[in-house]
Design goal:
Layout lengths: L2 E5 L2 E4 L4 E8 L6 E8 L6 E7 L5 E3 L7 E6 L4 E6 L8 E9 L11 E2 L3 E6 L1
Parallel strand pairs: 2-11
Antiparallel strand pairs: 1-3, 3-8, 4-5, 4-9, 5-6, 7-8, 9-10, 9-11
Length: about 120
Amino acid sequence: QVQLVESGGGLVQAGGSLRLSCAVSGRPFSSDAWAWFRQAPEKEREFVAAINWSTSSTYYADSVKGRFTISRDNAKNTVYLQMNSLKFEDTAVYYCVAKKGVATMRGPDYDYWGQGTQVTVSS
């Protein structure tokens, strides 16, 4: 059974940094894509970043480009989201997700979701 467990969320001041981790067990695919989505209160879920596991090609939402970096560690079966220069509007629950095939920016394309981790940025 595939499980995704996020960690690393918390409270940080604007301008600060956090690194989210997503530990993956039971990887179902030999070729897969992983991503982070987020959802703020009273807002729709939105794409943040994605990575193709086999090629390490990455994709970012315009709102986080240049500030966030997605990466993966094969040996640890872990996906990371390094978040720098955090802004108040980055406050949200962040979800780690996975799918077979290439990365997309559409939430419904992803088959597996973690439970989410809260990131709160104080202004």
